[in-house]
Amino acid sequence: MTPTETIDTAKAEAFGERMLQAVNDASLVLMTSVGHRTGLFDAISGLPPSTSDEIAAAAELDERYVREWLGAMVVGGVIEYDADGRTYALPAEHAATLTRAAGPDNLGPFAGYIPVLAAVEDEVVECFRNGGGVPYSSYPRLQAALREDTGTVADATLIDVTLPLVPGLVDRLHEGIDAADLGCGSGHALNLMARAFPNSRFVGYDLSEDGIEMARREAAETGLDNVRFEVLDLATLDARDAFDLITAFDVIHDQAKPAEVLVRISAALRPAGTFLMVDVAASSRLEENIDHPIGPTLYTLSTMHCMTVSLAGDGAGLGTVWGQQKALEMLAEAGFDEVDVKRVEGDFFNSYYIARAS
After folding, report:
1. CATH 1.10.10.10 segments of the chain
2. What is the pLDDT of residues 262-280, one digit of tens each?
3. Count of CB atoms within 10 A of residue 198's CB?
4. Which of 348, 302, 296, 343 is nearest to 321 (CA)?
5. Which residue from 171, 179, 227, 249 has the least number of CB within 10 angstroms?
6. Residue 94: which of 11, 20, 25, 32 has the closest Cα?
C-alpha cells in the first residue's frame, strides 16, 4: 500500500472475518476426515444422546481423544451437545451427509482428500520455487481415498445412470463387446461392469502397481473371469481397432501427455466405438468458475495433486480445471468429430463426454 492509499476499514474487517472462518472450516474438514476414518460418525448415528464414554465404547476408541474431537464437532455445529447431561447427538439431517449409510451422499471420504494433499505441502512449496512437480509416489494414501470416494458413487450410479447415457450401450454390453477402462485405479468400476455384463470382455489399465494389485484382488475375490488388469502408462497404449468402448473416469486431466493419450484412444476404438470420458464440470475460463460450488476445492486439488503430478513427468500440467472448452478442443484434435456433453442431476462435480471418432 502506498503512503497516500486509503483502506476501506469495513472491507478489511469483513475479509479478515471471512479468512478466520476459512481457517475454522479447514480445521473442521480435518476433524471430519478423522471422524470418518475412525467410524465415529457411524457409531454416534446409531446411538441415543450419549456421553463421551459411551460413544468411545461404541466406537472402540480412546475416550480422551473422542472427547476432544467431540468438542470440535460441537463448536463447529456438526454435533449437538446437552450441557446438563453432558451428552452428544448427531442429528439425522447431519448423518445424511456424514455416515457410510448415506452412500454417495457421504462427504466423509471427500473430506479425506484434504489431509492427503496437506501431506505434500512441503514438496509443492519447493515446486513453486523451483518448478517441476510432485510424483504420484508421494501420495501413498491416495489410492485408498479414491477407492472409497469413487467406489460408493460407482456402486450407486455407474450401471443404472452413467452407462445408459450412451444410447444403446447397455444392450450392447449385455450382448458382448470389448471394453477398456483407462486410469482404472483400484478397478472397482470395471469390476462392477464385468459382473453386470458377463458376456462382455474388460481390461483395465493404470500406472499404479498398488491400484492394479487391488483391482486384481477384488476381481479374484468376486470370481470374475471376463476382466483383466495391466500396469500401463496410458501414453504408450498400443492398440488399433481393439475396443468397442473405452472409459476414462476423471483421469485425462492428470496425464503427463493428455493429447497423446486421446490420440491413442481414438486409434484403439473400432468403427462406431464410443469413448465415455467423465471429467470435472468446469469452464476453461477462470471468470466463469467464480461461482462454482466447489471452485476453491477444484483449484486446490489441481495445485496439490492433478497439475503437479503431471508436471512431475515433464507433462502438460492441464490441471483439474482444464474445463469443457479445452476438453472439446483436445477431443476434436484427437479425431473425435462427434461429442455430446451430458450432465446428471445431482452431480455438480462431473461432465459426461460421449465421443465418437470418424
Report:
1. 9-101
2. 999 999 999 999 999 999 9
3. 13
4. 302
5. 171
6. 32
Q: Which residues pair with 161 in a beta bridge?
A: none
Amino acid at 194: A
CB 52 within 8 A of CB 62: no
Rg (CA), the chain: 23
Cα(287)–Cα(88) distance, integer angstroms: 43
* C-alpha cell recorded at residue 354: 460421449
Q: How far is CA 224 from CA 131, 156, 203, 231, in A?
A: 44, 20, 12, 19
Across all residues in the chain, what is the average pLDDT?
94
Is the distance from CB of 70 to CB of 79 less than 8 angstroms?
A: yes
Model confidence, pTM: 0.90
In contact, 270 and 244? CB cutoff 8 Å: yes
Closest CA to 261 of 151, 336, 161: 336
Q: d(Cα 271, Cα 209) in Å, to the nearest integer?
A: 32
For 350, phi and psi rounded to 5 degrees?
-120, 150
Element (H, E) at 264: helix 258-268
Rounded to whole angstroms, the Cα distance separating 297 from 245 reads: 31
Grid cell 474431537 in the structure block, residue? 69
Q: How many residues does the chain have?
A: 358
Residue extent(s) of CATH 3.40.50.150 domains in the chain: 117-357
8 Å CB contact between 352 and 153: no
How many CB atoms are located within 10 Å of the residue 184 CB? 28
Topology (CATH) of 117-357: Rossmann fold (3.40.50)
Give which of 254, 263, 205 is closest to 234, Cα–Cα.
205
Q: Which CATH architecture has domain 9-101?
A: Orthogonal Bundle (1.10)
Q: Which residue type is seen at 285? A: R
